[in-house]
Design goal:
Blueprint (H helix, E strand, L loop, with lengths): L3 E5 L4 H17 L2 E5 L12 H4 L3 H25 L4 E4 L6 H11 L4 E5 L13 H9 L4 E4 L4
Parallel strand pairs: 1-2, 1-4, 2-3, 4-5
Length: 148
């Protein structure tokens, strides 16, 4: 049925639950997974670098390190289950576009994602982004919701 699943993450617990569901589905279907974490550019329009103690390059470097940590966790979970997993960490301003572009470029046939992500800025990755993916995707999407 499905042979290549795209699993976007923001590192939240619900994103990890989506990953675990995707891994189980991939294992059952002899499919592979591509994990995705989008590194967002930091725009310092209100505060100067001196005011916040970091510059844009430092902040982006921290987010890149966070991306690698989350993606390594994804690879570890998939590998432990015997599922092939590669990962990608593009930089962009709109997570839903990165999700759709990656799904198309990698020839994915299913997107598995959490209904909501972290609060605050990270909350932008999912929630409203999930709605945008649902609206614009031509692929089936499995949305993982939190337990009641």
């Amino acid at each position: 049925m499905f042979k290549h699943l795209l699993v976007p993450t923001d590192g939240s617990a619900l994103s990890e639950a989506a990953l675990r569901m995707a891994v189980a589905l991939a294992k059952e279907n002899n499919a592979r997974i591509t994990g995705l974490y989008m590194v967002r550019p930091f725009h310092m329009t209100v505060y100067s670098a001196e005011m916040v103690g970091s510059d844009q390059a430092d902040l982006q470097s921290v987010d890149r390190a966070r991306a690698e940590q989350y993606l390594e966790n994804m690879r570890s979970i998939a590998t432990a289950a015997g599922v092939e997993c590669d990962t990608e960490a593009p930089t962009g301003a709109h997570p839903y576009e990165a999700i759709l572009d990656t799904a198309k470029a990698r020839h994915c046939d299913l997107i598995v994602m959490a209904s909501h992500g972290h609060g605050g800025i990270r909350g932008l990755l999912l929630g409203s982004e999930t709605q945008k993916v649902l609206t614009h995707s031509h692929l089936p999407i499995l949305v993982v919701r939190p337990p009641e």
